[in-house]
TrEMBL record:
PANTHER family found in the cross-reference section: S-ADENOSYL-L-METHIONINE-DEPENDENT UROPORPHYRINOGEN III METHYLTRANSFERASE, CHLOROPLASTIC, SIROHEME SYNTHASE-RELATED
InterPro entries: 4pyrrol_Mease, 4pyrrol_Methylase_sf, 4pyrrole_Mease_sub1, 4pyrrole_Mease_sub2, CobA/CysG_C, NAD(P)-bd_dom_sf, Siro_Cobalamin_biosynth, Sirohaem_synth
Annotated ranges, domain Tetrapyrrole methylase: 178-389
Metabolic or biological pathway, per its Swiss-Prot or TrEMBL entry: Porphyrin-containing compound metabolism; siroheme biosynthesis; precorrin-2 from uroporphyrinogen III: step 1/1; Porphyrin-containing compound metabolism; siroheme biosynthesis; sirohydrochlorin from precorrin-2: step 1/1
BP term (GO), one: methylation
Protein name per Swiss-Prot or TrEMBL: Uroporphyrinogen-III C-methyltransferase
Native organism: Candidatus Sulfurimonas baltica
Domain Siroheme synthase central stretches: 116-142
Pfam family, one: TP_methylase
Superkingdom to which the source organism belongs: Bacteria
Record-stated family: Belongs to the precorrin methyltransferase family.
Membrane-spanning residues: none
Encoding gene (name): cobA
Length: 429
């Protein structure tokens, strides 16, 4: 470290800014934003200075101009001006900053983040302003909106003697906390969005669903806190209400949380419930979309859900309702011509689906596909019919989706991920 420095905050200071060029303009803008009392002296000003609301004295600088100022900023770039000021300092007390000449400076400007009275200063002690600015910008992206308002509220309370440190800390931590619902898709780490990857990498705490793949879990930094909240069918390890409470608890402590959810958070993923619970507690929430198995599954199996000539409509439904009851309100979709129906969470209800479909008058020979572990190395595709679905679903790996419609026949001609393929018909059944 070249200089021994201590960042401090100066209050009610009077500054003289010498110079009227681009460098001086940049310093003037900082001073104006921070409501600092200062004057400018220069024999000439660039046009942009007209917008700066400050007293501008147009004259050549003389050493007498420094009198009565406690801080002098030299943005002239002139060696002669610098020498005059340094000589004057020998007998006079004031703080001097000569832009881009750190060896003669009494202080350095920090890279500032400004939220009203709340200021975050980043300094490299003159070693690299670019580094300080980059770190400043990174921190600024992480800080929430509303800090200025909170600062003003706390100032008002302090002014009337209402100082509650615990409450102030609680309010601040809650504002700084954030939850990102991260759609992790089908489990292929290469299919994560860049934003999802960054969120996982930068989180303080990661909440992990049961269906999150080992590949994605492996990209979580080793020093990141990991909390498993997966819910298996028939063995719910953590209730949804408890998950909501845990997210609120950790976010209220100021943690940056990545909540990893299989597929897309808002497609049968209960992400909306989590987002609503958090927002009701005034906790910041971000949602990152993921590729649902309803979209990636058919694609990886060589099935185009809306291929021209095969299907003009697409429906995505869930066979599962709250309380482990079955949803059959969508069954009539199976009778529609040129229609593709994709069913999530339906493998374990295959018998009931087929019974309801045949009773409703659906064609038992309707092309049907089961795609398990879509896009993963152990992906499996089973081609069958509506009537034969219960036999095909019996030993199909989970998780899996069911695709109904003529588009299933496209598996014979379209590209697909390498996977195990099985055809289920009356003979094999």
């Amino acid at each position: 470290m070249k200089y021994a420095t201590l960042p401090i905050i100066l209050k009610d200071i009077k500054i003289l800014l010498i110079g009227g060029g681009k460098v001086a303009l940049q310093k003037a803008k900082v001073l104006v934003r921070n409501k600092i009392d200062f004057k400018c002296i220069s024999n000439d000003y660039i046009a942009e200075f007209k917008a700066i609301s400050v007293e501008k004295i147009t004259k050549y600088f003389t050493i007498e101009d420094i009198n009565s100022y406690s801080v002098v900023i030299d943005a002239t770039g002139s060696d002669d001006v610098m020498k005059q000021i340094l000589e004057h300092k020998k007998c006079n007390n004031f703080l001097y900053n000569c832009v881009d000449v750190p060896d003669v400076c009494d202080f350095f400007f920090a890279a500032l983040i400004e939220h009203g009275a709340l200021k975050v200063a980043v300094s490299s002690a003159g070693a690299s302003p670019t580094l300080a600015q980059s770190v400043r910008d990174k921190i600024a992206r992480m800080l929430p909106r509303g800090l200025e308002e909170l600062t003003n509220q706390l100032q008002t309370k302090r002014d009337i003697g209402l100082i509650d440190i615990k409450e102030a800390k609680k309010q601040t931590s809650k504002m700084l906390g954030k939850v990102t619902l991260v759609g992790c898709g089908t489990g292929d780490v290469d299919l994560l969005t860049i934003k999802a990857y960054k969120s996982i990498q930068n989180a303080d705490v990661v909440f992990i669903d049961h269906l999150i793949s080992k590949e994605i879990i492996e990209i979580i930094p080793t020093n990141t806190m990991k909390i498993s909240v997966g819910k298996k069918k028939g063995a719910h390890s953590v209730k949804q209400e408890t998950i909501n409470e845990m997210l609120i608890e950790y976010a209220s402590k100021g943690f940056d949380i990545a909540r990893l959810k299989a597929g897309d958070p808002y497609i049968f993923g209960r992400g909306a419930e989590e987002a609503q619970a958090l927002m009701e507690q005034n906790i910041r929430v971000d949602v990152i979309p993921g590729i649902s198995s309803a979209i990636a599954g058919p694609l990886s199996a060589g099935i185009a859900p809306t291929a021209r000539g095969y299907a003009t409509n697409l429906s995505i439904v869930s066979a599962h309702l709250a309380g482990d009851s079955i949803n059959t309100q969508w069954i009539d979709l199976l009778k529609m011509k040129n229609h593709t129906t994709i069913v999530l969470m339906g493998l374990s209800r295959a018998d009931e689906i087929v019974q309801a479909a045949l009773e409703a008058g659906a064609d038992g020979s309707l092309p049907t596909a089961i795609i398990s572990n879509a896009s993963r190395p152990n992906q499996k595709r089973i081609i069958t019919t509506l009537e034969q679905l219960p036999y095909a679903a019996k030993d199909a790996p989970k998780p899996g989706i069911i695709v109904f419609g003529d588009v299933v026949n496209l598996h014979k001609i379209l590209p697909q991920y390498e996977c195990e393929t099985e055809t289920f018909n009356e003979k094999t059944a």
